[in-house]
Specification:
about 35% helix, Alpha-D-Glucose-1,6-Bisphosphate, Chain A, domain 3, 27 strands, binds 1,6-di-O-phosphono-alpha-D-glucopyranose
């Protein structure tokens, strides 16, 4: 097999963000762009020769082309084995699972997650380490450094290569194993949850569920689990077929982008349970009949009820949430007397805590929930956890949520996103906020007294690594918070995220709309950051 060394020049914009490198497809299609980044990944591997890697993605536009390029580069770089999802399809949690199960040296996942797909939309690539989780910052920094120094990459002469059939073939010295990851993943799920109980629950005449796969990667996984194994009818899954452009939709499971699902669940005779997952299958949204469970509440409720689920019946070592996620889970952890860690945004920050056995469950406000079963957040896992819980409790979702709030109080929560704003405007807004931080503690803003105002800094309790500038926190005496962050996953300009949270035990407020409860705090947040002045936006683009 002929291999070539191709001369190239660095691109300056290949610094991975919150979750890998995400750019418009057109950027990835520039000559050498993908290849440079992949070569940098290979050159960062501790043992490149003979390494075994997983490879696959969410099936979005450019997935297949990128996979074929990576196979040719792997062969030329001395990689020993690639384990590839059939037709290039691997959900992010399934990739994490196969890296762990088959003891691979890592994996390359092609996804821009919840970002839209298509020739004019987004693509992404990220590297996961042997623990199955997203590479830690020191590794992504090393990859970035390599991209700045690169002068050539290695690639084999293209040869026909069939990734649509399960089986093995040799590509020079490289062994390519095409697998059906749906089988591995569904076996893992069956080892965690009581499938017999869930099956009986789903067969009840008063139970009806609806899962929205959003034309994204979870379709085949959901069909095997819900239709084939749990016996749900075909129409229990919406948008099951994965499409390269997600059917023109935005594969983000939230109230704005899963509209048909939300409308159905909120109709008078709607199903008892609804859920959705995102582009690469790691996010989840949970709904009951006329009830939306915020991701922060979902994490708290799963934590409070974990011992009712087979996999967690012996209790939890601890829990973790990202800083902007509401403190609902903190209240539960306190009651259970288990540790609760606060990490920066990004699943990679949970990796060390999971590996060290310090936590069992973790989650984020950005519709991500997961556990120690893999090292990624896991959309279908969260859905099955809820179904197992419903099968045990035999109560409507809304009753479970209300009872949780009665017991622990309610952390009412919303997030306002201002998308695609000018980078300079976003940076000026953040600078202006940082300049105010010193003068805020002790001040009264509306009906709230500022207790602290700072930039979040994280010291990893396991390896001592430090991550600075992880978001601006304004904390109030009554536990309310306003958090500001710039997203690390957008591809157009900057996205400002404003997270609002207030805590209440007042019975009258337990049934109220969160937006209503957070109105005063929302007003303070826009005034303090002078959002309209800096961005010329009167309203957020999306409220979740
Ligand atoms: C990624 C990360 C998450 C993070 C989310 C939003 O999720 O894995 O940890 O919370 O992005 O990040 P940001 O607020 O910086 O946009 P995903 O599902 O997009 O891979």
């Amino acid at each position: 097999m002929q291999t070539n060394s191709i001369k190239t020049k660095p691109f300056k914009d290949q610094k991975p963000g919150t979750s890998g490198l995400r750019k418009p497809v057109k950027t990835f299609q520039k000559a050498h762009y993908l290849e440079n980044f992949v070569q940098a990944i290979f050159d960062t591997l501790p043992e490149k020769q003979g390494a075994k890697l997983a490879l696959g993605g969410d099936g979005r536009y450019y997935n297949r082309e990128a996979i074929l390029t990576i196979i040719h580069m792997a062969a030329a770089n001395g990689i020993g084995e690639l384990m590839i999802g059939k037709s290039g399809i691997l959900s992010t949690p399934a990739a994490s699972h196969i890296i762990r199960k088959y003891e691979l040296d890592g994996g390359i996942i092609l996804s821009a997650s919840h970002n839209p797909g298509g020739p004019d939309k987004d693509f992404g690539i990220k590297f996961n380490t042997p623990n199955g989780g997203p590479a830690a910052e020191k590794i992504t920094d090393a990859i970035y450094q390599k991209t700045l120094e690169i002068s050539e990459y290695k690639i084999a002469e293209a040869q026909p290569c069939n990734i649509d059939k399960v089986g093995e073939f040799q590509y020079g010295d490289l062994l390519v194993r095409v697998i059906d990851s749906v089988v591995d993943y569904s076996e893992l799920m069956q080892s965690l949850f009581d499938f017999n109980l869930i099956r009986d629950y789903l067969a009840r005449p008063d139970t009806q569920i609806l899962f929205d796969a959003m034309h994204a990667v979870t379709g085949p996984y959901a069909e095997m689990i819900f239709n084939d194994i749990l016996g749900c009818p075909k129409n229990a899954i919406l948008r099951a077929d994965p499409l390269p452009d997600f059917g023109g939709g935005h594969p983000d499971p939230n109230l704005a982008h899963a509209k048909q699902l939300v409308d159905t669940l909120f109709a008078d005779a709607g199903p008892t349970f609804g859920a959705a997952s995102d582009g690469d299958g790691d996010r989840n949204m949970i709904l009951g009949h006329q009830c939306f469970v915020t991701p922060s509440d979902s994490l708290a409720i799963l934590t409070a009820n974990a011992t009712q689920i087979p996999a967690y019946k012996n209790g939890l070592a601890g829990v973790a949430r990202s800083m902007p996620t509401s403190a609902a889970v903190d209240k539960v952890a306190e009651k259970l007397n288990i540790p609760c860690y606060e990490t920066p945004t990004g699943w990679k920050f949970f990796g060390n805590l999971l590996d060290a056995g310090k936590i069992t469950l973790c989650g984020e406000e950005s519709f991500g929930t997961g556990s120690s079963h893999v090292r990624e957040k896991d959309g279908l896992w969260a859905v099955l956890f809820w179904l197992n819980l419903l099968a045990v409790k035999k109560q409507p979702v809304s009753d479970i949520v209300q009872q949780h709030w009665q017991q622990f109080g309610r952390n009412a929560y919303v997030r306002h996103d201002y998308e695609a704003i000018e980078n300079d405007a976003a940076n000026s807004l953040v600078d202006s906020l940082i300049n105010q931080l010193g003068s805020l503690p002790g001040k009264r803003l509306g009906i709230y007294d500022v207790q602290y105002a700072d930039e979040f800094r994280y010291e990893d309790p396991i390896d001592g690594s430090i991550s600075e500038h992880q978001g601006i926190r304004i904390g109030f005496e009554d536990g309310s918070r306003i958090i500001y962050r710039l997203s690390g996953t957008g591809t157009q300009g900057a996205t400002l995220r404003v997270y609002l949270e207030t805590y209440t035990t007042d019975d009258n407020k337990l049934k109220k709309d969160a937006n209503e409860l957070l109105k005063p705090l929302a007003k303070i947040s826009t005034e303090l950051a002078q959002i309209e002045h800096f961005t010329q936006r009167e309203q957020p683009t999306v409220i979740t």
